[in-house]
Specification:
heterodimer; A: 9-stranded mixed sheet; 6-stranded parallel sheet; 15 strands; B: 15 strands; 20% strand; globular
Chain lengths: 512, 515
């Protein structure tokens, strides 16, 4: 069981050779994310000494042309580091649906693997491509290189493991997901698939689990007895910037909420897994996430506020439909706020509000847990307004955890005022290695840890929650409420929050 | 009627009569605090402050005597304040002397033309003269009525309030004697017994924090808390003034009063109210209940220490203090585990620790929670330190919760950091009030919550009297420790024995030092 032995925090893969095969190497994602993250791992010594990175795409290029293309995107490190890294990068062109092309690309790779003189070579396949070509290239690779065996060892005695990284979107509703899943499932088993949701690679999302379970003070409060409501928010302060064409086919719910925010929700809400680190903890975590998802009934349109941004009054930015790649009559939401229910013993009655929007007043992603009012405080502090406690985990920018607490107003008064117990990472962990989410996730793949990757049953359950409302929006052409570029979004979203019991504390602002 | 946060007393005249005005306490605490209140407009425009003591001085001599101790404010303010200060000399046990001192005061009170005048009596004197001066005042000025305005046919006296200072006895018997004697003169409603710890910002905040947040109360009990430490450390010795201290020792000087008062606020059940009108007795009722649930401390649960000169001889040992007998066995350090036998706290040790000549100056409350359940299974092979909520009373007020987070970067190991609220950084502009100033305002406002009631003292002495008597009867020798050290090692052993987990690698630093 090769998988088991390496599913830990050690870096035993460093002792073997490693071939990384980047499919779609000439595309945007590869250039902006895949190669920079591989470079990051390289210069921090997380890649084996014997590593070869082969880019593969349809366009014809020499190795040097390819290196010149990705070179400018590599950040950090010295010129020597960059040169050394680029020396390990080669490029082969070929059609995605051609076994022959793939086979011939692998001739050189096999030679490299053999030349290393190491007993094992591991192979990482990175699909930086749209899902429409998952199946063609997946089939070609399977037949030409990986072979039929589940363990991936059949094709060559010298191969340690084969792992496959794929990127969203994983379908656009239940049905399209099932189709993609069946096709890919016929080729690869779940053990080999690493579906990236880069939110799961964020420092604070990973920390959420550590914080919940390595402290005795949170778990007793982490339930419907003490929590009033939970908000998970993503705000972007810019629009589609002329690239709304792709977005328009998906909308904010599919682009942000159904994947990123829902994934964060599962980690906030799940029951304690059997283990969250050590050997083989991945499925313990994913089992709990699935349970949460399966406890959530489909979202109702009545519990949603949909929005689409207009140009700001001063006309300095275009409206969403002003984007030349977006149809003038588009009803695609660029903003959505929706209430989810988790019908299990821990959470029944606690609304989880997922909110995401483009072209808003600020850039921010956070989890905000609002506790109930302190019982009895009204009688104990007559005449004082006592805001509820909130635990806020700020995912970006500037990671922080803070708990809004009430303390005595310092000085001669005894009124409670709101302040916070604060942990701002910039201050407390000034020297910490600030890892990009992709870098972290690729390292997880090399280590064989699947916990931060989305399993098929999670996706199935997630689509069940959103498919009905998405279909209804499309069928009935529900008009989103328009909001001004740079605003807080539609007012109706605040009304929805208030209806769910959220108490907005206007006088307080976190100063971290 | 005036027991609220408003300053209704500002509309009346105010006479402050400071007994023992020429002494150290008056000079260093009473007058500077009154000046502080004056500068911040917490004294009525019509205020007269009359010092009274045995030594003969003119008003101006007295003003020269206290002036150097007045801090803050400008020269004009100092001038204006000193103008309100007068001085009369007289004997403590002489009704006539007191009456004479009040002739001028009464004239002044009438001259204000205000409907009411309030009178504050501040006893900055040792308890041996509480009763003589208390009797003189009662007979000459205050009169027999509970309301304290019987002598004043015009009914112009608003209220009479009396501030007294520790020590309030040195054991149960002496306390009862003092309480009876004072009790025949003054009712509890007029008495304001100062324990200046109750005037500290963070001690006052403890009540606000516990009861105005919903996140603390659910875990504030034996199910989640492993142990609680309340610590006072001083980094200097008796400095040649050990004579007074030697008759009391660290238990009476710090633990039986200051630390146990803090303990009651940490441990009490929620009072009916912690602010608003007439909340004082709600708070004090709950404090008494806690004290009455604590059995007397056993010697086996104590570590006593006395400091030696440090190795380099740069400081004297305790018994080298010329005012201390060479064979003194008075403890300058004590650490003791108390139990509270009630449903909330049974089984949770409260460790009170106080010492002089230690490695640092610090006052804090440290609540250590139980281990995170299941965590050793969920994080195989990782050490997971227990959470701690620390409330730092001095120096540099802070509240912080030691929490474990994922080590930032590529590892998933938990590391200990903290959720931090350091007052200096979060409230940089807050009015920094001295404990005495705060407490005197409470007296002016008629709020007794931060003053010690007689039944609290009775219950507190019950806890400590048996062990104090045993220490003295059996002449228990304290364990020697070096000046500037952490105190006797046995104290750490006591902590470990009651379940405290020391986390050596962790040290809290104020956030400013992290930048």
């Amino acid at each position: 069981m090769q998988e088991l032995a390496q599913a830990d925090e050690s870096c035993s893969y460093l002792a073997s050779a490693l071939t990384i095969f980047v499919v779609g190497a000439s595309g945007d994602l590869a250039k902006k994310k895949t190669y920079p993250s591989l470079f990051d791992l390289f210069r921090n010594s997380f890649l084996p000494e014997k590593t070869l990175i082969c880019g593969y795409a349809r366009s014809k290029k020499t190795d040097d042309e390819f290196r010149a293309q990705i070179g400018p995107y590599l950040k950090g490190g010295t010129d020597d580091d960059k040169r050394n890294f680029l020396e390990r990068c080669v490029y082969r062109s070929g059609a995605y649906d051609s076994e022959e092309d793939v086979k011939s690309a692998f001739v050189g790779l096999r030679q490299f693997e053999k030349d290393t003189g190491l007993p094992l070579a591991n192979r990482l396949f990175y699909f930086a491509i749209p899902p429409s070509v998952f199946v063609p290239i997946g089939t070609s690779l399977k037949n030409a290189v990986i072979g039929p065996s589940e363990s991936g060892l059949a094709e060559s005695e010298g191969v340690g493991w084969n792992r496959l990284i794929i990127e969203k979107p994983f379908g656009k509703d239940s049905e399209s997901f099932e189709l993609l899943h069946q096709n890919m499932g016929a080729l690869y088993s779940e053990d080999h698939l690493y579906r990236i949701d880069h939110y799961l690679g964020k420092e604070m999302v990973k920390n959420l689990m550590t914080m919940r379970y390595s402290n005795a003070i949170f778990e007793p409060l982490w339930n419907r007895n003490h929590i009033s409501n939970i908000q998970i928010t993503f705000k972007e302060n810019f629009g589609t910037k002329g690239r709304g064409g792709y977005f328009d086919g998906y909308g904010i719910i599919r682009d942000i909420i159904q994947n990123h925010l829902l994934q964060v929700l599962t980690i906030v809400a799940m029951e304690p897994p059997v283990a969250i680190s050590g050997e083989n903890y991945s499925n313990h975590v994913r089992n709990e996430k699935v349970k949460v998802l399966e406890s959530i009934p489909p979202v109702q349109l009545e519990d949603c506020v949909l929005g689409q941004y207009l140009a700001p009054e001063d006309g300095s930015e275009p409206a969403y439909v002003g984007d030349p790649t977006v149809p003038d009559d588009s009803v695609t939401p660029t903003f959505a706020s929706m209430v989810l229910r988790i019908n299990n013993p821990r959470w029944e009655g606690v609304p989880f509000i997922l909110k995401a929007g483009k072209a808003l007043n600020e850039r921010k992603a956070e989890v905000r847990i609002q506790f109930k009012q302190p019982p009895g405080a009204k009688a104990m502090f007559p005449g004082e307004g006592i805001p509820p406690n909130e635990l806020v985990m700020r995912l970006q920018p500037d990671e922080a955890v803070y708990m809004k607490v009430n303390v005595k107003e310092p000085g001669l008064k005894t009124s409670p005022v709101t302040s916070e117990l604060d942990l701002t990472y910039k201050k407390s962990f000034a020297g910490a290695f600030n890892v990009d989410a992709y870098t972290r996730l690729i390292l997880d793949v090399l280590r064989g840890s699947q916990a931060a990757f989305v399993r098929d049953d999670e996706l199935r359950a997630a689509w069940k929650i959103f498919t009905p409302v998405l279909h209804r929006i499309e069928r009935e052409k529900i008009r989103p409420i328009t909001y001004a570029y740079g605003s807080r979004g539609p007012e109706e979203a605040d009304t929805l929050l208030a209806k769910m019991g959220f108490k907005y504390h206007a006088d307080y602002k976190w100063s971290g | 009627m005036q027991a609220d946060e408003s300053c209704g007393y500002l509309n009346s005249a105010l006479t402050i009569f400071v007994v023992g005005a020429s002494g150290d306490l008056a000079k260093k605490k009473t007058y500077p605090s009154l000046f502080d209140l004056f500068c911040h407009s917490f004294l009525p425009e019509k205020t007269a402050i009359c010092g009274y003591a045995r030594s003969k001085k003119t008003d101006d001599e007295f003003r020269d005597h206290i002036a150097p101790y007045l801090k803050g404010g400008d020269e004009d303010e100092k001038h204006a304040f000193l103008d309100k200060c007068t001085y009369c000399s007289g004997k403590y046990d002489s009704e006539d002397d007191v009456r004479e001192a009040f002739v001028g005061i009464q004239q002044w009170e009438e001259s204000t033309g205000l409907r009411y005048v309030n009178r504050l009596f501040y006893f900055a004197i040792p308890p041996s003269v509480f009763v003589p001066i208390g009797t003189s005042l009662k007979n000459a000025v205050i009169g027999p009525s509970e309301k304290g305005n019987a002598d004043d046919a015009s009914g112009r006296i608003g209220w009479n309030r009396l501030i007294i200072e520790k020590p309030f006895g040195k054991d149960s018997d002496s306390f009862e004697k003092l309480s009876q004697d004072m009790g025949t003169l003054y009712s509890e409603n007029h008495l304001y017994r100062i324990d200046h710890y109750l005037g500290k910002e963070m001690v006052k905040n403890l009540m606000t924090m516990r009861h105005s947040n919903s996140i603390f109360e659910p875990i504030w009990n034996r199910n989640y808390i492993s142990n609680i430490q309340i610590t006072f450390k001083e980094d200097f010795g008796t400095k040649g003034r050990g004579g007074y201290f030697d008759g009391y020792g660290i238990i009476r000087d710090i633990i039986q009063n200051h630390l146990i008062q803090v303990l009651t606020i940490v441990a009490m059940e929620p009072p009916l109210a912690v602010s608003g009108e007439n909340y004082s007795n709600h708070v004090r009722n709950e404090k008494v209940k806690v004290l009455e649930s604590i059995p007397p401390v056993e010697l086996d649960d104590c570590v006593l220490g006395q400091y030696l000169a440090p190795e380099d001889g740069s400081e004297p040992g305790y018994v080298d203090d010329p005012s201390v007998p060479d064979d003194s066995i008075t403890p300058t350090f004590a650490s003791m585990a108390l139990k509270i036998n009630n449903p909330r706290w049974e089984g949770v040790p409260f460790v009170l620790k106080a010492g002089k000549a230690l490695n640092e100056r610090k006052g804090e409350v440290r609540i250590q929670f139980q281990r995170s359940p299941g965590a050793s299974k969920m994080f195989p092979g990782e050490k997971i330190p227990a959470n701690e909520l620390v409330i730092r009373l001095q120096p540099d007020e802070a509240v912080y919760m030691k929490v474990n987070v994922k080590e930032p970067g590529l590892r998933t190991t938990p590391v200990t950091s903290e959720l931090d609220l350091t007052y200096k950084s979060s409230f940089p502009d807050a009015f920094h009030v001295d404990a005495y100033s705060r407490l005197i305002i409470d007296v002016l406002r008629g709020s007794q919550a931060a003053f010690v009631r007689d039944d609290e003292l009775r219950a507190a002495w019950k806890i400590f009297t048996p062990i104090l008597e045993r220490i003295e009867r059996e002449k228990i020798s304290p364990i020697k420790y070096d000046y500037g050290s952490r105190g006797p090692r046995e104290s750490d052993e006591l902590l470990a024995r009651v379940g405290f987990k020391y986390h050596a690698e962790y040290e809290w630093r104020p956030p400013s030092s992290k930048l």
